[in-house]
Amino acid sequence: MTEEITYADLEFNKSYALENIPKPAAPEEKGVPSSSSTWRLAALTFLILCLALLLGMLALGIVFFQVSSDFQKQIGNLTRNQETLQTNFSKRLQDMKNRLCLKGDENNENNGPSCTLCPANWQWMRGDTCFYISVQKKSWVESQKFCSLQNSTLLILKDQDKLNHVPARDKTQYYWIGLHKSRNNSWYWEDGSALSPVKENWIYLYPSYNCGYLYGEKINNYYSTEEHFWICEKAAVKLSM
């Protein structure tokens, strides 16, 4: 009887113990996040992108402002430099005019905003031509060569009025000019143009002689080998202010 009670007690205790053992919790199921979580994540991402864009635009604006400011300073410096250079150039040009420009005549034809320049030892009266009157004598060919080396020609007198532009000279002397006779006995000026039919009373040419010279206010001719003074002419340089 005692053994039966003891066995029954053991069986009861065993069953009770087994019933009271805590069962492990069931694992939570991993499912798809809810729509609320997805919206928050998207909003956060969008906010971060907006902040990044805002910071980028702010940085770009700062750089643009700095570059624009530097550019404006450079323009200001260039403008001041240009004004300084212009002022210095005007002063130098005025100084050059005072040093190099000819005095002009009584009508101040050479004292305006532009003036005429001639090489050293050349003379200017008016107009746009410089003249060289020699102080030594040469043949016509040597006189022509001298003028050519000076980038000029012997004096061409197609019009008697041009004599009013030729500087003062000794009118008792003979001066070779750019007039010569060709092999066909035709007369030509140094620029290649033919002498117009002589009707004026200031040109006297003789068949025996081949080169023209100026004597006083008249044109005559003689042998080219004869030595005389000569007159060269060339275009003057215009200096504008």
From TrEMBL:
Transmembrane intervals: 41-65
A Pfam cross-reference name: Lectin_C
UniProt KW Membrane keyword: yes
Molecular-function annotations in GO: carbohydrate binding; transmembrane signaling receptor activity
InterPro entries the record matches: C-type_lectin-like, C-type_lectin-like/link_sf, C-type_Lectin_Domain_Fam1, CTDL_fold, NKR-like_CTLD
Alphabetized UniProt keyword annotations: Disulfide bond, Glycoprotein, Lectin, Membrane, Transmembrane, Transmembrane helix
Topology with respect to the bilayer: Single-pass membrane protein
Protein name in UniProt: C-type lectin domain-containing protein
CDD domains: CLECT_NK_receptors_like
Domain of life where this protein originates: Eukaryota
Gene Ontology biological process terms, A to Z: signal transduction
Cross-referenced PANTHER family: ASIALOGLYCOPROTEIN RECEPTOR 1-LIKE-RELATED (PTHR46490:SF6), C-TYPE LECTIN DOMAIN FAMILY 12 MEMBER A-RELATED (PTHR46490)
Native source species: Mauremys mutica
Subcellular location: Membrane
Residue stretches making up the C-type lectin domain: 126-233
Primary subcellular site in the record, as a coarse category: membrane
Record-level GO cellular component terms: plasma membrane
